[in-house]
Amino acid sequence: MTRKPLWIGTSWKMNKGPAAARDAVGQIVSMAIPEEITPFVIPPFTSLETVASTLSGTRWHVGAQNMHWEDDGAWTGEISPHMVRECGADMIELGHSERREHFGETDITVNLKVRAAIRHKLRPLICIGDSAEEYEFGVTHETLARQTKIALHGLSAAEIGTVLLAYEPVWAIGAKGRAAEPDFVALAHTRLRNVLAELVGSEAAQRVPVLYGGSVSLDNAARYTALDNVDGVFIGRSAWDPSGLEAIIRSVVS
Ligand SMILES: O=C(CO)[C@H](O)COP(=O)(O)O
User: Fold this and answer.
1) DSSP 8-class letter at 171
2) Out of 61, 108, 164, 214, which could bridge 40 as a Cys pair, Cβ 3.0 to 4.6 Å?
3) What is the pTM assigned to this prediction?
């Protein structure tokens, strides 16, 4: 039995259009979720409404993978916070390293999006992470502190209390990634908690869930969730098949 509520979820990234999403969410909705788990799923935009409507009224949180910070306007190809809400999502993933690396996302645009999310009552799941180079040069903490402080800039303590942070080392993500050692994650999360304490005080900082992501699998998930300052895991490939997600959920509560 685990000792704290754990956020466990997955982003499907650019996988599962409406037909595949319908099939997957049909399996997800019938999963038995232990009460100490807060589950979430983040489908691509085209499947968002299907997934959110199927999971409406359940304990699942549903998010989109990105959004613009403006409410509407001439922003070809973009999706607004209103649209995300209208599809039934209650969460929004922001600042994933794939968006920072390939689509020009910056600390500043992440901050604009976090503020927009809060205005629209979407819970931001803010991804932060060090590059392989930053890790090699020993500046992981500096990078995470900078990304966190800028993402949360201008928010009140109460607003910061509504966000989730996910530490996802860039070098740990994807098929070529190497899962971070639990000891390293423990240290990174403890330091992150101190950054949050600087912003909102130590008691409020304890209430911000900080998740780990990057090559999380059935083999290693429970080693992360057992750590004091890890409040859940954000899973990619190993949870795209709903049975993989279900097995990981079971592994962290047994
Ligand atoms: O965002 C992630 C989780 O959805 C992250 O990029 C980890 O992906 P994974 O390495 O495929 O688990």
Assistant:
1) G
2) 61
3) 0.97
